User: Fold these one by one.
Assistant:
Number 1:
Amino acid sequence: MKNISRAFLLSLPILAFSAQSYAIPVSYGTTSHNTTQWQELADTANGDQYGVSWTVDNGVTWGRDDLFVGQTVKFKFNMHKDNVGTHYADHLGAWLDWGQDGTFDSSDQIVYGEHVISTKKNVVNTAVESALGTNRTPDTPDIVFFSDDFYLTNAHIGETWLRAIVTCSHSMISNWDNQWKPKNKNNYQSLLGPTGHYYQGETEEWKITILAVPEPSSFLLLGLGLAGLVVARKRK
């Protein structure tokens, strides 16, 4: 599990950034996993160990800066896979505590994504995959999911948390054969909750700060203060 507060980034490609780690409040509950071999949150194509990022300029740049009222934000979730599996699908769920009440509920879900691997039990979908079998690099090792756009208002001001989970169908269905039953194939979004133990996969948690836009007078005072520092430095 990755617990992160903020990471500062100007633009892609993602190479390096600073991040501070904080423990998510216990009121949000917990998630756990045993292995990330088949699903992990990471943007390996750009050398980024984290899989969650967001944009406020319609996808021109992706980063993890603080957000401001008046911006429209979209979230991106990069999932990476090392091994080929024969489970029904890979799944992503993400929740953001918009109400800042210290819990995740169904109204906080900002995205659900599903990447189907095998339409039939234990049958990989391509001839190449079938010939080579499992435990090799997948044909699609990197998968990207996006949220809708969210316009930030004064009601969003404050600090809150985002949790993203990637896992597989079998981690939600104890009986392997039941992954392909219609009652489950049409119901995985409700089966993937923001808490619990999912054998495969990974969880990332981000502390997000949403700020009010400073008044113009504040910018003016800041400018005057900086100008004063420059004058004082020159005199010295």
Note: The CA atoms of residues 118 and 124 lie 5 Å apart.
Number 2:
Amino acid sequence: MTITHLITANELETMGGDARYELIEGVLHEVSPSSSDPSAIAARLLFELGTLVYPDELGMLTGADGGYFLERNPDSVIEPDGGFVRAERLDLWPGRRGYFPGYPDIAIEVSSPTDEPAEIRTKMDLYERANVPLVWWINPVRRTATVQAVGKPIRHLTDMDSLNGELVLPGFEFPLAVLFDFTPKR
């Protein structure tokens, strides 16, 4: 691939909602639709977060279309599978138009079979540079989660463990076994 110029967040935004890209250091990265299982896992996790976040107005949750403007010059805009922004940071986004101008306090990334290890590493590095307080990397096939938190070593969880909101969202805890074993009753 030959890059003729770096893309800006404004140029990405003018491409419209049909353009499925993330922007990492000014370079477009195509985001393909996820398979159903990773999408269902992200939705379930967002639902569980919502039971804590919304009743007490703790902040805002975003789904896979929610864009976060993490870096400028060159620009980086990411769309995690799910995100949480604390209520006190929503003032950073007057008018609530365009990408959220900053990082999510919690980013949720659910692995899909098409995800390349190099792309995941690039995104992990981006989250680290942007000081995203808490990132949950969920791998449904392996039934594991990797927790990336600012100032802490990366932790690897199995389905015997639980995700928790740590200092970002105190009181949130959800067992990975329940997340992975969720199947609707017929």
Note: The first strand starts at residue 21 and ends at 24.
Number 3:
Amino acid sequence: MFRLFFKIITWPVYHMLFWVRVVNKKELKKYRKQGVVLVSNHLSNMDIPLMFHGMPREIFFLAKPQLFRKRLHAWFFRGLNGYPIEQGKDLALMKHSIGVLRKKKALMIFPEGMRVFNPEDALALKNGASLIAIKGNVPIIPMVINRPLKAFRLTKIMVGEAISTEEFQGRKVDKDELTAFSNKVSDVMADMLATPNFQVKEKKKWWDKINVDVARAICFKEEEDGTKILLMKRNKPSYRGGADYFVTPGGHLDEGETDKQGVIREVMEETGIDVKPVRVVYKHQAPDRYNRIGRDKMLSYFVCEYKGGEITMNPESEEYSEAVKSEVDAQGNLVGTFEPMWIPIERIFEKKFDMKPEQIHVQLKKDFKKMGTRIVKRTQYFK
């Protein structure tokens, strides 16, 4: 009753404001009376309302736990057939998902794991959706959304042909097979996105046309005592009488190097930590000292996943020399300091915590409070 009431009162406003076209809806109707896993790319927070109104059947969905943290929000999203994906509760999640499929319902999953804004990061599907479909002995129906939902603009949803999981039934499926199957689904979705007249190229912002010269990492690590962020502590006698300040690891790109490749290399050189860049979250224009060939340059900040490694200080790195080269005592010894370290995330909220540049520090605090370590906001530009 709650879902029906909500759909009735929101239907007129939704369809007046948002123009949605579902391509190949007949494929969904073929499986209307049986359990099925629906998978889609994930572009915005409006994807769930988009599917709620756009699908010709009742759907259940898996969503990020942040939507369920407040009691009222949890009541609302559970009322709309939502269920949180929480770390450490895989068994409960699997039981819920299989239960939905056994009732011959549709389960909606965004297998990219988070909203994806950069095309090169799209459709890197995790194995969860494939595993649920195999365990539930149901097909996967791939779907793709051509652009984020926006008022008074046409958004298309393309439905692909169902992908059977029959070949995996009655036997144990290893991780490599599961990954291969997820990649198969990903390839199908990529082909759907590439369909002529379906994908819409968004207009680039003016700053996207400026070459990136410096790439830096915002890397988080979950430990038993809480979330930590990878930073480098600096100290120079000429800066506020020797006060400590912090910067994110990273540096200049080498010739022919992409910003993703550069941030991986720089973080490894400076800290000994292996990271996986997820996407750019912030950009700002580089100061004059970075304009090595007389043109405007940009700094890009990647939110990164921690892959492994232990902190190792490298005095030969460019970051180290930049931190200390201007500080020489009477005997000609370098007296500045440079030290990579994992900092408890709570410290960045302290009033006296000095992190450079200031605008990134301010925005990081805002975004982390809202979203946690995912930081799912779109790229932000700072002058």
Note: The domain at 206-382 is CATH 3.90.79.10 (Nucleoside Triphosphate Pyrophosphohydrolase).
Number 4:
Amino acid sequence: MTATQLVTAEELYRMGGDVPYELWEGVLKEVSPSSSKSSEIGVLLAIRIGQFVLAQSLGYMTGSDGGYILSSNLQTVVSPDFGFVRKERLPHGFSARGFCPMPPDLAVEVISPTDRKADIAQKQALYRQAGVPLVWWVDPERKTVTVHRLGQEPEVVDVSGTLDGGDVLPGFELVLRTIFRD
């Protein structure tokens, strides 16, 4: 049996932005590029949420390359397809270097055909353990979004439904038909 070499968030950061990894409890987790359809949906979501966040001056956003430290003790860094942190939690914005030092308030993950169910469940468990208030798992094939609100049962919203930002993005609504364009 071989021991797994644990990695720190700082070591991951020093590897550079071209390294296709997240850090799950000290272990490097390879993340592959997503499908074109998944990426398109991620961009459409980022545009819609981004316009709302900017118009309301609510906080700070990242794309799929932005890392968030979910846990310093267990050295966990993830890069959701879209992340958002409220301004009051990060009054001076993002630092020019390093990962965001805290979990996001909203993490949006767009499922790609290569994503494994076990990995999705494990990553959601990491978000839950870190206390992320709102996580959206977007499934382009099923045209659904599974909404995880901290302390509540997951809710599945289909293509005919509307997402809302709840307490994280008060007043934000998105008709899912507008991002599942076929």
Note: Residues 34-66+77-178 form a domain with the tt1808, chain A fold (CATH 3.90.1570.10).
